[in-house]
Design goal:
This protein is α+β, with helices and mostly antiparallel strands. The chain is built from six helices and nine strands, in the order βββαααββαβαβαββ. It has a nine-stranded mixed β-sheet with strand order 1-2-3-4-5-6-7-9-8, sandwiched between helices. Helix 5 links the parallel strand 6 and strand 7. It is globular and about 50 Å long. The protein binds coenzyme A.
């Protein structure tokens, strides 16, 4: 129906990373992911770089989150089944490592959503920009998208997220979202995250002063802002 592959045993859709990461797939969320999310999101090498997940991250947080993202993924898959080719998000977002015995290990999350300008400190302006962006019709080339990501710390630094972000931009966001603009942020000093985006064509625009407090990351005082414009514009 599109660039997604289908697991013949389970019927689950997935995207597979190119070599040398062919053992890495990205699938929709599963109810069984909750325990792994709790493990990953209570690891300081992960949560300290994230603003939104609660900390400590309890099983009920994971269950509520999964219910929400699963609903979103199911809705997009339904649109695709009905023959739509341009949709309002990416139905696959959980990165998994396929093991030699065929089982898989949850590695992390790569989510694609409409942007919310987290770094804009003027609340009224931020809400206005976000509302306008949310109100745009599906497929509108002026929608500004954002990418959020994290990986299990045992798998940092192996090139996995760089490859995953590249694949999702090229195989999903361009053909199925009609994405023309991507806007991302990373906490000041999170050079791993900045590099992942830069390696995929996003440009570091600025580092802004912000006053943000997150449950796990503490007080954030600076945010790198990156943007991508579709080549050929
Ligand atoms: C940021 C994160 C997603 C990167 O994923 P990853 O798979 O480890 O990244 P990659 O292995 O693809 O590395 C990408 C680049 O960043 C560089 N890099 C990775 N960690 C780095 C660090 N701590 N400092 C500087 N550069 C770093 C790598 O060297 C590589 O660049 P290169 O190819 O030019 O050498 C992962 O480290 C993570 O989950 N961190 C915690 C959560 C987080 O920060 N999420 C992003 C929030 S904006």
């Amino acid at each position: 129906m599109n660039t997604l592959q289908v697991n013949p045993m389970t019927g689950e859709v997935f995207l597979r990373l190119p070599a040398p990461h062919e053992n890495i797939i990205i699938t929709p969320p599963r109810d069984s992911d909750a325990a792994d999310l709790v493990l990953i999101l209570n690891d300081p090498r992960v949560y300290k770089f994230l603003l939104e997940p609660p900390f400590p991250y309890y099983l009920h947080h994971a269950e509520e989150w999964l219910e929400m993202v699963k609903k979103r993924s199911d809705e997009i898959l339904e649109d695709l089944r009905e023959g739509k080719t341009v949709v309002d998000g990416c139905p696959v977002q959980y990165i998994r490592e396929v093991q030699p015995d065929g089982t898989d290990l949850l590695l992390g999350d790569l989510s694609v959503t409409r942007n919310g300008w987290m770094e804009v400190s003027d609340k009224e302006l931020r809400e206005k920009m976000t509302k306008e962006n949310l109100e745009k019709p599906i497929g509108d080339p002026t929608i500004v998208w954002t990418i959020g990501d994290y990986l299990r710390s045992s798998h940092h630094g192996k090139g996995i997220m760089s490859a995953a972000v590249g694949m999702v931009i090229n195989q999903w966001m361009i053909p199925h979202l009609n994405a023309h603009k991507i806007h991302t942020e990373a906490f000041e000093g999170n050079m791993g995250s900045v590099r992942v985006f830069e390696k995929n064509g996003l440009k570091l625009l600025e580092t802004v002063k912000v006053e943000l407090v997150g449950p796990g990351c503490g007080r954030i005082e600076g945010m790198h802002v990156l943007e991508w414009e579709r080549p050929g514009k």
